Amino acid sequence: MKQVYETICKSEIWRTSALIVLFDEHGGFYDHEPAPGGATPPGDEPRYTDWGNSLHSREFAWDQYGLRVPALVISPLVPAGAVDDRLYDHTSIIATVAKRFSLGRLTNRDANALTFDDLFSLPEVRQTRRNLPDVIGPRNFA
């Protein structure tokens, strides 16, 4: 991630870009917040059905959220140190890109997803670090 960030922020496109890092899973850690309800189903029937591959065989309607997952929205147009506690989901990326480029919606889920637009709130590009500290990993512990 360090290499990707440093490459993008040193390029000509950085002033109008965002690096969005969205994790696919929660990592197996207990979350003190229960999963929120009320997710908008995509609406692209037929519904996905469990074909008996689990003990909890049932129709899955995609109308609930799972556990929270970490996300980073990195841009010179986002205030330094900003923390946002609004409810986003994975389709927020699709909704943001679709809105920005007038692409329309893919499903009801992304049509109703919160976009990242409000995060890009600075009137001017701010200075960002061009080089990050070296990553501490197994090879660096001595």
- Biggest sheet features: 2 strands, antiparallel
Number of helices: 3
Low-confidence stretches: none
- State the shape: globular
Proportion in β-strands: 5-15%
Task: Name the helicity range.
Answer: 10-25%
User: What is the typical, i.e. mean, pLDDT?
Assistant: 84
Please give the radius of gyration in angstroms: 19 Å
Secondary-structure element sequence? HEEEEHH
DSSP, total strands: 4
> What structural category characterises the helix and strand content?
alpha+beta
Strand order of the largest sheet: 1-4
Could you tell me how far the N terminus lies from the C terminus, measured between alpha carbons in angstroms? 23 Å
Give an overview in words:
The radius of gyration is 19 Å and the shape is globular. The protein contains three helices and four strands; from the N terminus they run αββββαα. Strands 1-4 form a two-stranded antiparallel ribbon. By secondary structure, it is of the alpha+beta class. About 10% of the residues are buried.
Features of the shown structure:
two-stranded antiparallel sheet, 142 residues, alpha+beta, 8% strand, 3 helices
